[in-house]
Amino acid sequence: MTRTVLTTVLAALAAVGVGAQGPTALQPSQRAELYKRNQRVIERLVEKTVVSARAPNNPVTRAESYDQVLYEFTQAIHRAKADKDPARVADLTKNLNSLISRGLKPTLDSAQKMVDGGTGKDEYVQTRDHLIAQVETLLSMLDDPATKAILEQTRTSLMKDVGK
Amino acid sequence: MLDVVSLVPTGPAARPAAGPQDGLRRVTTEDGHPAGDEADLIRAAQAGDRPAFATLVERYWDRLYRWLCRLTRDGPAAEDIVQETFLKAFAAVNSFRAGSNFRAWLFRIAHNNFVNMRRSARLNRQPLAPDMVEDVRGPVRDALSKEALKLIAEAVGKLPVDFRAALVLRVEQGLSFADVAEVMGITEETARWRVFKARQKLMAVLSPELLPAPTNDSMKP
Amino acid sequence: MNCQTLRSRILALPDPAQVPADLAGHLEGCGGCAAWHQLLVRVEAAVATAPVPATDGTARARLVAQFRTAGKSKPKAPALVVPAGPTVGGRLARLWPAGLIAAAILVGTVAYLTFDRRPGTTQVAALPPDPLLDKVVTAKIELDAAASDANRKARLGEDIHESAQALARVSPGAEMESHARMFRDVGESIVLEGKAADLQKDPAVLKDCIQALVKIEQEADKKATEAPVDSIRPLRDIAKTARESRIVLAQRS
Fold it and tell me: Percentage of chain C with pLDDT > 90?
């Protein structure tokens, strides 16, 4: 009897302990609301992921795919700021940071190497100009220092051969 | 830096509304023709009435021609595509859904024909004659010098064709972004983006030429 | 708001000549942006009215004649007069009490679905980070780095499908259609890659991919049997895409 009670109490305490860590899964209603807000950015990311995948050996085409993605992030951050939704601004900024530092930067490095190797210059120049415009717009509207630093580095990298 | 004739403030550009705005029942098309009249013509054409379709040709020919001239930059080629568009439209008129946007449907056929023509490289692709700037009249001509208009025409001609197509559909034809998307077979977001990029590119080229240098450079941080 | 942000927002407007109040304030105080804006409005007006080569009208007249001379003639359709009888809008307007009740029910339902009912949990206004956004960003980064990776794409497909499963009951309609479209794009990409895969190098490369697609097909079909009406077709589309993709891949492996 005592052992049964003790086991039950221990099991109950374990359950409370797990519950007290807080809910790890979002409610479907929350996910629905999140999707409503982020739908355009998500759709564009998936679309451009698929487009890039068709050009595995062409980093210039992959770099171009970031142009429209960055545009959608710009629009989404505008909307989040207008809605006075700092949590969403922070979430979008964090993801933008990842996208640029781990996605766009290495892609641009490969693209620049490809151009230095003698191919894709015209396409690269057009892509570079598009990306400079997007990066400058983002720089003017973001407050997060880490993301601004990454954007500055990206702009410097893009600008270094402007005019050549 | 070229002179802009004057920087007299202007009111909002007179442009057809992008879609119903006030919830009232639309009684005319954007051309000013009674909407029910157009619906009757389309129904008649669907029943095989060719003269009814001839009226639609007369109404839409100029609009289609203007837009296709901007895309092709080749007057004779634009005429060919317009003709082909109407022939295909008549052949397919039974696929048009009553109540949907006839203009967007027609322009969609035109866009497809343009894309096919582009692929087969049948275009002559000569720049539209700069002398045509002489033909501009009215408030635009009053507000911008001849040289400025030439610069604008050149800059528009240099836009990537998809950006140019979307921009002209929006500003000249007055189509909503949703209708632009329908014509070009893209999403509404992509239509918005193409118009945005077109404007951005135009202003990047034209601002240094047409704005005073200190005004262009001195932006508030 | 700084000038760069303002100009970017104006460029994104449906009509740059119609500037909302929050942007107009900056224009009133900034001569540079005001001049820039004025130029933009004029440029658009110039684009709208730019002349095109005149034609002699022969082609048009010929085509019109071609249509006019053949076929039956018909009296010109009468001009539309705004009808005196009740319009659809008028008939609907008379139902306003029912409309008011329906609106109240709708608002209540949205509030009920939106706000979590468990005491002490977070309100939707302070939403946590979006897990799907995180996943698609990660997928873009990883797939851009990899030359080709059908299995990684399959994982992206799984993420999209999982999101569709979560939304099926609460968000039927446009959001579900959006998921089905994204899944179709990813599915096509997986098939293209599968067709090009070097199976001699790695015979089992498609195995995990096929297994993932089988699972998605089964789960999507199952969910469709219990989902609201407007979620059924998107779920069936996802199942169909998964089925067709795995059939093509299975033929290769």
Answer: 48
The pLDDT assigned to C123 comes to 37
pLDDT for position A36: 92
Domain count, chain C: 2
A133 closest CB neighbour out of B189, B190, B200:
B200
| Statement to judge: residues B50 and B73 lie in one domain | yes
Q: Are residues A26 and C124 in contact, defined by beta-carbon separation less than 8 angstroms?
A: no
Is B160 among the domain residues? yes
Domain ranges of chain A: 26-159
Q: Does C53 touch chain B (CB under 8 A)?
A: yes
Indicate whether B116 and B138 sit together in one domain: no
- What are the per-10-residue average pLDDT scores of chain B (221 residues)? 33 34 49 76 90 93 93 88 90 86 93 82 49 58 78 90 94 93 89 93 92 59 53
B/e letters for C47-85, b = 16+ CB within 10 Å, e = fewer, are bbbbbbeebeeebbeebbebbbeeeeeeeebeebeeeee
A102/C163 Cβ within 8 A: no
Asked if ipTM goes beyond 0.90, one says no
Residues spanned by the domain of B103 = 31-124
Instruction: Answer yes or no: are the C-beta atoms of A111 and A120 closer than 8 Å.
Output: yes
Secondary structure of C17-30 as H, E, C letters: CCCCHHHHHHHHHC
Q: What is the pTM of this model?
A: 0.58
Buried b (16+ CB within 10 A) or exposed e, B1-33: eeebeeeeeeeebebeebeeeeeeeeeebbeee
Residue type at position C107: V
- Is the Cβ–Cβ distance between C132 and C159 less than 8 Å? yes
What's the CA gap between A37 and A39, in Å, rounded? 6
Chain-chain contact of A94 with C129 (C-beta, under 8 angstroms): yes
Q: How many domains does chain B have?
A: 2
Contacts of B135 in chain C (CB under 8 A): 51
Tokens coding A33: 């609301």
Q: What DSSP letter does each residue of B160-204 carry, written as one string?
A: -HHHHHHHHHHHTS---HHHHHHHHTS-HHHHHHHHHHHHHHHHH
Interface of C with A in 180-199 (CB under 8 A): 181-182, 185-186, 188-189, 192-193
State the virtual CA torsion across A15, A18, A21, A27 in degrees, nearest 10: -90
Q: What is the pLDDT of residue A126?
A: 79
Q: Are residues B118 and B141 in the same domain?
A: no
Q: Token digits for B97?
A: 């859904």
pLDDT at A130: 80
Buried b (16+ CB within 10 A) or exposed e, B42-75: bebbbeebbbbbbbbbebbbebbbbbbbbbbbbb
CB–CB of B13/C48 below 8 Å? yes
Structure tokens belonging to residue C3:
């000038």
Distance, C-alpha C66 to centroid of its chain:
42
Interchain proximity C127–A57, CB inside 8 Å: no
DSSP string, B39-71: HHHHHHHHTT-HHHHHHHHHHHHHHHHHHHHHH
Of C12, C46, C78, the CB nearest to B196: C12
Domain that includes residue C42, residue range: 3-47
